[in-house]
Amino acid sequence: MSPLNITKGSTSHSAYDLRDPNAEVIETHTLAVLVDNEAGVLARVIGLFSGRGYNIDSLTVAEVDHTGHRSRITVVTTGTPQVIDQIKAQLGRMVPVHEVHDLTVDGPAVQRELALFKVAGKGDARIEALRLAEIFRANVVDSTLESFVFEITGTPEKIDAFAELMRPLGLREMARTGVAALARGA
Q: Which residue pairs from 134-137 have beta carbons closer than 8 angstroms and sit at least 24 positions apart in sequence?
């Protein structure tokens, strides 16, 4: 009996791989949606997601063209490739929607998020929190004798990593803005 040869991209499966080979892959996509800046548009876009059972991992919205009265909605969502295509098609058919861009497939994109962390602690935990904040380039925006509030910007993964390190040091509260994203290049 010959040994099982598995290479990257191979369709051979290990006897220890318990994943269902027929299961569909769940992907995370960042969508940028340019819409009319008028009452009810955000509710309609969100209604599309909730009405069909699609999840929103992150949502940001702000006016980007004051004279043209346009806003940009950045949505991070997950689903199978077919579900993502459905979401994009349904968004594109909505009347107040002018453009839908999938920043995940359109090419390289820059994603950033802002977060505030309240960390309570004394003694060594307080010193360690300050040391880690310096490593992560987080700013102290408020300080009392019992706690700090840190401000940090970066990728969602960087924010998650900072949160995990702060939990044992006394993380009490966290607020996140959600992802803001732009395609790179011209």
A: 136/161, 136/162
pTM tops 0.70, yes or no: yes
**How high is the mean pLDDT of the chain?**
89
What b/e readout covers 38-54, taking b as 16+ CB neighbours within 10 angstroms? eeebbeebeebbeeeeb
Domain 109-183 classified CATH 3.40.50.10300?
no
- CATH 3.30.70.260 in the chain, residue ranges: 27-102
pLDDT band at 186 (very low <50, low <70, confident <90, very high): confident
Percent over 90 (pLDDT), the chain: 83
8 A C-beta contact, residue 78 and residue 45? no
